[in-house]
Amino acid sequence: MPPESARRQGIALSDKQRIAWLRLIRSDNVGPSTFRDLINHFGSAEAALAALPELSRRGGAARAIRIASVDEAERELDRAQKHGARLVGIGEPDYPPALRQIDGAPPLLAMQGAFTSATPPSVGIVGSRNASIAGAKFASLIARDCGRAGYTITSGLARGIDTAAHRASLETGTIAVLAGGLDKPYPPENIALLDEITGGNGLAVSEMPFGWEPRARDFPRRNRLIAGISLGVVVIEAAERSGSLITARLAGDFGRLVFAVPGSPLDPRCHGTNGLLKQGAIVTTGPADVIEALTPLSQLDLLDQSVIEEPGGERTPADMLPPDDSDRERIASSLGPTPVDIDDIIRHTGLAPATVYLVLLELDLAGRLHRHVGGLVSLSMLD
To answer: Where are the domains of the chain?
Structure first.
């Protein structure tokens, strides 16, 4: 594993910057990728906030963009503090290092508990909510032995496999990723388990605001965080079309290792995991399979790249000159409903990358751009 000094480096946001970051990510049409591009272009969240109305107007917005107020941000920070949580920025020392590397990593994470669990390499363990006794025991075995080998165990606080994995790693360190706000855990029967996690060596994390009730569409976002935090994901008893398979697919997209535990062909809970094995997942019959495969990855220093840089970053006025209307039209006309790579837009139009990225920001903030996995973009069908 990399030395502790390497894992603990990073930026440090001031209170003023943290409020600006929170306002920016909570404003309309600003997702993680848009946030990153705004910071990279304007140098700071404050400068980006000031530019939002004009960018949105130039992109063809039908109405004025809603920008989160200072009062809203301060109330959310106060609510986090009263809950015993903090909002940690990407690139700060306590932000999970592997998560920083994925496309569209959350700029801010609400985190509560033992922050020492955030930085070691992590193993994700997911599977059936309706787990068999054997499946739950195997999840406990993997979690316990991987924890003793120095890995934090990450899962989604669900019933079944998730619960078994969290319980077996309470002493060594576990991360519970929530689909809603930290004050809205789901399912209710695992609230006591969450209290054990945050009151001991574990950590609860969420990208959602406090007070956010989890909805069905929020769980794939939670699965994305599980896959992003982990160097590898172990899938135990996953049915076809289960959320665990979404986590496995995302882990593969992020270049993480996917492990699958073989199960009986007669058990519907194992159809998904057996399918993963056919697709090339690592056959897993014991903790050693996971630990041996992950050892080379755990040696990497995942803090050697900074996804977003803020403190002190400013841009000169020349860097922020708006594109002219002809450039804007060339870029918009090169887009359609089919997702394309931004590099292809640059090559097709022959325009400078900074110009292309700025026009895409304008379209995005106007609600006219869709962002897809792998950094692809497309124009809204309404256009």
So the answer is: 4-110, 115-298, 323-379
323-379: CATH topology is Arc Repressor Mutant, subunit A (1.10.10)
| Angstrom distance (rounded) from CA 306 to CA 208 | 23
Give the sign of the dihedral formed by CA 233, CA 122, CA 117, CA 39. negative
Give 91: exposed, middle or buried? Use CB within 10 Å, 0-12, 13-18, 19+.
buried
pTM of the full structure: 0.89
3: tokens are: 């030395």
Cβ atoms < 10 Å from Cβ of 347 = 11
The correct CATH number of 115-298 out of 3.40.50.1370, 3.40.50.10210, 3.40.50.300, 3.40.50.450 is: 3.40.50.450
217 vs 286: CA distance, rounded Å: 33
Report, as ranges of residue numbers, the positions in the chain whose pLDDT lies below 70.
1-9, 300-321, 381-383
